Amino acid sequence: MTEPQINHPALWQSLLPQPNAVSHKYTRGYVLIQGGYPVTGAARLAAMAAARSGAGITAIAVPAIAFPIYASQLLSIVVKPYSDDSSLQALINDNRVGALLIGPGASVSDSTRLTAFSMLKTTKPVVIDADALTVFAGKPERLRKSILAPCVLTPHDGEFKTLFNLQPANVLEQRIKQAQLAAASVGCIVLLKGSQTIIADPDGRVILNQPAPPTLATAGAGDVLAGIITSLLAQEMPALEAAAAATWIHAEAARLCGVGMIADDLPELIPTILQGLMPSE
Ligand SMILES: NC(=O)C1=CN([C@@H]2O[C@H](COP(=O)(O)OP(=O)(O)OC[C@H]3O[C@@H](n4cnc5c(N)ncnc54)[C@H](OP(=O)(O)O)[C@@H]3O)[C@@H](O)[C@H]2O)[C@@H](O)CC1
Ligand SMILES: Nc1ncnc2c1ncn2[C@@H]1O[C@H](COP(=O)(O)OP(=O)(O)O)[C@@H](O)[C@H]1O
């Protein structure tokens, strides 16, 4: 097994996307998130984080019944209602979409599993988080068969245990090995969240984030992380670097906020962190 690299901007800073004079919103990356109902906050947090991380367009596909809830609180985020499976499918298959996210607030249901399969079938980068991990409980091979393009799984310990039937260890070295084996078995990046988030590539490479602020242990912080990763993927960052950069930016935003942070604070702080990572003019 490869030794872990410590997460640091030197690993990915040169790959961070930057707009230029000929950019327009579609060339800056189009993120599509499947938004759940009745749990609607999670996808909205992810969407705000994706937009603040530089995607030119961030859209949430939502069941028609939930449209007023989403649309009443979002201005820059495009809310796209769907009435049935085929209209959701059309949103997912839109050629302009650059990366997809499913899971935050999605519900543990057959419909979430089918939507995850539809997303993977597009061969666009996909981030699979939260409920979209849980729907594959104990059956990661079902995911493996469908992963055809860059894909990032973002489990917390509970989701890792449910998906892989394996309790993540407390000892760091063992956790790293577990994440590496999981990534190799499922054939995509496994980002095992925690104080020291581990980002494992199926090719054996692994990046270890230094301890993040414990204030991140708050509802919705993981949704924000998923949004940042999806945004960087839509902006054509390679998956391992996108996951590592997102994890670093997420932790720095929490550090900047300090005590009393809630997940809603994080997207607002991303621009400051990104500004500090841009080459000086
Ligand atoms: N604003 C919103 O709308 C928000 C909505 N959200 C949405 O809510 C939905 C449910 O998501 P969820 O993560 O809260 O619960 P779930 O998937 O049922 O698993 C939790 C179980 O796993 C275990 N567990 C072990 N280690 C753990 C760890 N490190 N961190 C956490 N849990 C850990 C633990 O069980 P224990 O080990 O304690 O018995 C726990 O009971 C999902 O759609 C999500 O997107 C949230 O994103 C928040 C903001
Ligand atoms: N004790 C901790 N110290 C540092 N970071 C933590 C700690 N607990 C959780 N985190 C981070 O906070 C985020 C929580 O994500 P998650 O559990 O998915 O929350 P949610 O589902 O509510 O969005 C992850 O990025 C994780 O790495």
Describe this structure in words.
It is globular, with a radius of gyration of 17 Å. It is an alpha/beta fold. It is 42% helix and 14% strand. The mean pLDDT is 97. It has a single domain (5-14, 24-270), classed as UDP-N-acetylmuramoyl-L-alanine:D-glutamate ligase. Helix 1 runs parallel beside helix 11, helix 9 packs across helix 10 and helix 10 packs across helix 11. The chain is built from eleven helices and ten strands. Strand 9 (198-200) and strand 10 form a beta hairpin. A ten-stranded mixed beta sheet has the order 1-10-9-8-7-6-5-2-3-4, with helices on both faces. Residues 39, 41-42, 104-106, 130-131, 134, 156-159, 219-220, 222-223 line the site of ligand NPW.
Radius of gyration: 17 Å
Q: Number of folding domains? A: 1
| Overall pLDDT confidence | 97
Class by SSE composition: alpha/beta
- CATH superfamily, by name, is Ribokinase
Instruction: List all distinct small molecules, including ions and cofactors, that are bound in this structure.
Output: ligand NPW, adenosine-5'-diphosphate
As a percent range, the share of strand residues is: 5-15%
Low-confidence stretches: none
Quaternary structure of the protein: single chain
What's the order of the H and E elements?
Answer: EEHEHEHEHEHHEHHEEEHHH
Per CATH, the architecture is 3-Layer(aba) Sandwich
With helices defined by DSSP (H or I, 4 residues minimum), what is the helix count? Answer: 11
